[in-house]
Amino acid sequence: MLGTILVNLFINVLIMRKIVFQLILTLGVSYSAFSQNAQRHCASTKFDSLYEQRFQKMLERDNQFANDKKPFYSFKIPVIFHIIHSGQNVGSSYNISQAQINSQLAILNQDFRKTNSDFSSTVTQSAFLSAAADCEITFCAAMVDPAGNALPEPGIDRILAYSKEWSNPPYSFNYIESTIKPGSSWDPTKYFNVWVVGFSDGMTLGYAQFPPIPTTLTAVSDMVGNGGPANTDGVVLNYNAVGNMGSATYPFNKGRTATHEIGHWLGLWHINGDSGCGNDFCSDTPAQSSLTTGCPSTTGGVSSSGCSASPNPPGKNYQNFMDYSDDRCMSMFTAKQKERMQAVLSNCVRRNTLNYSAVCNAVGIEENEASFNFDIFPNPAHGQFLIDIDLIGHQDLTVSVLNTLGQTIKEIKYFQSNTGSLKVDLSGKPAGIYFVSVKLNGVSKTKRLVVE
After folding, report:
1. Phi/psi zone of residue 332: left (φ > 0), alpha (ψ -120 to 50 degrees), beta?
2. Which of 49, 86, 255, 440 is the most buried (most CB within 10 A)?
3. Which has more confidence, 321 or 41?
4. DSSP 170
5. What's the CA gap between 207 and 177, in Å, rounded?
6. CA nearest 384: which of 446, 429, 433, 440?
7. DSSP designation for 179
């Protein structure tokens, strides 16, 4: 009897060891699969009909200008990235590097201005080529904190969790909303707050707070459930889905998670309206039966829409930033999506003030008053522009062009110049906001330049 019990016990131990070993193998495969076959998981609010009703009323009022032919404007959004870490060295784990943040900013400026290099290779069907839009939105790194102090790393606020008496990352959605965001948000009328964290569920890439929508008759107000309180307004990103270097992990390693979530932050729904063949209220995005997983084609091939209302071709617009495709597939917004985002930036509280925020002005490169004057034309420019300056006699002067990070990207010295027009060539530089500084007789004057 005892022998039988011992034999059975030994067999059970072997079985348990096999189960544990198989579990370890399974976990190992799952971890590997996260980087090879992972699916996008966005935790932003799903489609809400009441919210959309109010959004449509806002659009109607916005479009009343000039018989529904209102002009589009260029908007600049100042960004502050709150990097939440638990003491790691800069560039390690949650505490991602400045270079990784800068790569994300560059990607945003390319994606929202339709200057991303992968657009031409991934968008090849005529229907999508004609619908694709330059959203005329740019992003710049905040140069100063709310007290006006220069940031040692433009656009970055590093927060050691312990210093705030917070738990160490990773975090749950509830902890982020109740503790992290309210305890670290900067004035959302001047800064676009982006939090970089680790998510405890191991799946979420990011989420956004939708814009508050103006009501029919009263001033702009927050929307319960979609728009939300000022101290939680912004976007949250997983640290391994930021930019295109460092901790950024395939297949979400091209910075498109931020582009996708900012689309939500500016009022866009998922491209299928979060239902089979649903409505995202953008008439130039075709209906599709489901959100895309993976990357059907990197050369613009047809992927069946699965909806009778959407012919094949063109099929799914899986290249759209508001789908669920892998980063390497995402490459476009449409004209109607642009219309929604521009309406939000023109009308919605905590969005319509950002374009006038001065926090991206680098210390020492503000537009200033000096004893001489110069003009830039054309402005906006397309690569080349002229500086028209009033000179008396022959004088030495220096022309510097700085990006929104305060970095000098071009400098030209003129010795004993007496010409009134100076040509500067920025061909090959990305579209966006720049500062042109002219130094003459020890005095500098700086003006803002837009490159399209």
Report:
1. beta
2. 255
3. 321
4. P
5. 11
6. 429
7. I
Q: Which of 118-122, 150-154, 281-285 shows the lowest mean pLDDT across its residues?
A: 150-154
261-279 per-position pLDDT tens digit: 999 999 999 999 999 999 9
Q: Strand, helix or coil at 379? A: strand
Closest alpha carbon to 239 in 171, 295, 299, 179: 171
Residue 33 has pLDDT above 50, yes or no: no
Integer Cα distance of 289 and 279 in angstroms: 11
Question: What does DSSP assign to residue 293?
Answer: -
Count of positions (residues) in the chain: 452
Active-site residue, selected from the candidate residues 52, 136, 261, 339: 261
Angle CA 76–430–339, to nearest 5: 45
Given this model, what pLDDT does residue 30 score?
23
Banded model confidence at residue 155, pLDDT cuts 50, 70, 90: very high
C-alpha separations of 52 from 83, 212, 280, 346 in Å: 32, 11, 10, 17
In the chain the domains, ranked by start, together with CATH numbers, are 33-356 (3.40.390.10), 374-451 (2.60.40.3080)
**pLDDT exceeds cutoff 80 at 223:** no
What percent of the chain has a predicted confidence (pLDDT) above 70? Answer: 80
Q: Which two tokens stand for residue 307?
A: 């909806």
The answer to whether the CB of 135 falls within 8 A of the CB of 73 is: no
CB 402 within 8 A of CB 411: no
Tokens standing for residue 32 = 């590997």
The answer to whether 278 and 310 are in contact (CB under 8 A) is no
Q: How does strand 395-402 pair with strand 432-440?
A: antiparallel
Among left, alpha and beta (phi > 0; psi -120 to 50; other), residue 441 is left
Q: Pick the closest to residue 282 from 228, 343, 348, 213 (CA basis).
A: 343
Whether residue 261 lies in the annotated active site: yes
Phi, then psi, of 122 in degrees rounded to 5:
-95, -25
| Banded pLDDT at 387 (limits 50, 70, 90) | confident
Alpha carbon separation from 213 to 185, 210, 224 (Å, rounded): 21, 9, 10
Radius of gyration of the chain (CA): 25
Among 358, 372, 371, residue whose Cα is nearest residue 435: 358
DSSP string, 296-336: S-SS---B----TTS-TTTB--TTBTTS---TTT--B-BHH
CA dihedral 41, 43, 47, 49 (to 10 degrees): 170
